[in-house]
Amino acid sequence: MAVVYNHLGVVGLKLWKFTCVAATIVLMATGMAETDASLAIQLNTLALAVLAMIPQNQFRPQIVTFMLLPASLALLSRDSYRGRAPLWLMIPILALWGNLHGGFIIGIATLLVYTSVVGLQDLAAGRAARRALRLGLITLAGNAGNFDLTVRNRCMVGGAQRIERLYAVQPIIADWQPLLPTIAFGLRTHPARWFSSCSGYS
Predict the structure, then answer these.
(1) Can you tell me whether residue 200 is helix, strand or coil?
(2) Domains in the chain: how many in total?
């Protein structure tokens, strides 16, 4: 994002955001197209997903997770409904994802759930567990590139915690507070401001 801004300014950031959001919608539609759901169900589901995304599409790295999760689901959907897909693409997807946003853990969890379901289905049908084994190896390979990142993240989290203790910033930053007590505090102290800030996201 910094590179885009340094070279193209605000217009570049807007183009970057537009590209990520457009790719997310196309990938969601691609994943749903692999299913046997009717066109009406697909379009309504896509519309609901797009509406839910609107307040979250900000100039933040989380937008990468919004894009790479449907990319992963599209691959898994093709594998599930068509019987085969280039699942090896999950390895570079997870490696890229892990270096762009911490939400890559969702991709790993999705792969683990899918691998478990495939394994149980093959076991129930009396088939060999080759598909589940292949998926497990892909999950391990995709996560291997994030091992050093995990170590670095632990160092960064430790540093943030030390800063938090040193400067006593925890009471100031609302993002670090529990959700329900923060809402209750906002309603008690500044109800008009709290409702106006919430309406800005609707």
Answers:
(1) coil
(2) 3
Amino acid in the structure at residue 74: A
Would 81 be classed as within a structural domain?
Answer: no
Per the structure, the complete domain to which residue 165 belongs is given by 86-169
CB of 74 closer than 8 Å to CB of 27: yes
Query: Is 11 within the bounds of a domain?
Result: yes
Does the model's pTM come out above 0.70? no
pLDDT at 201 over 60: no
Given a cut of 60, whether residue 21 has pLDDT beyond it is yes
Among residues 76, 65, 55, 50, which one has the least CA distance to residue 20? 65
What is the per-residue pLDDT for 29? 92
In a domain, 71, yes or no: no
pLDDT digit string, tens, across residues 109-156 = 888 888 888 888 888 877 777 788 888 888 888 777 665 555 555 554
| Burial status of residue 90 (CB atoms within 10 A of its CB: 0-12, 13-18, 19 or more) | buried
On whether the CB atoms of residues 72 and 111 are closer than 8 A, the answer is yes
- The residues, any chain, with a CB within 8 Å of residue 139's CB and separated by 6 or more, are 90, 108, 111, 112, 115
Q: How far is CA 58 from CA 19, 53, 83, 92, 105, in A?
A: 13, 10, 36, 25, 20
Whether 162 and 179 map to the same domain: the answer is no
